[in-house]
């Protein structure tokens, strides 16, 4: 296994947790603006309609994917700076 992959393993785990927390916070703020509500609907929320639930789920998924990609790419770039090779 290349040194960059070994270095990236623990970095990737920490970044994964951080990206989840960051994405959750970003989604919460976006939903407040877009949904005009404090909390996004749960799939089992009887008070909310299909449209609102599916929009919230789609938006949340897109935000989580974008934040994860940004954090992962930044982590890989940092590992390359430290080791001289890409951890892929």
Structure characteristics:
elongated; 88 residues; mainly alpha; 0% strand
What does this structure look like?
This protein has 88 residues and is mostly helical. The chain has a domain at 1-8 and 48-88. The chain is 76% helix and 0% strand. The chain is built from 2 helices and no strands. The chain has helices at residues 3-35, 50-83. α1 (3-35) packs antiparallel against α2 (50-83). The chain is elongated and about 55 Å long. The termini are close together. It comes from Streptomyces enissocaesilis. The chain crosses the membrane at residues 7-27, 53-71. Keywords: Membrane, Transmembrane, Transmembrane helix.
Fold blueprint:
Blueprint: H1 3-35, H2 50-83
Helix pairs in contact: 1-2
Keywords: Membrane, Transmembrane, Transmembrane helix
Protein name: DUF4235 domain-containing protein
InterPro entries: DUF4235 (IPR025329)
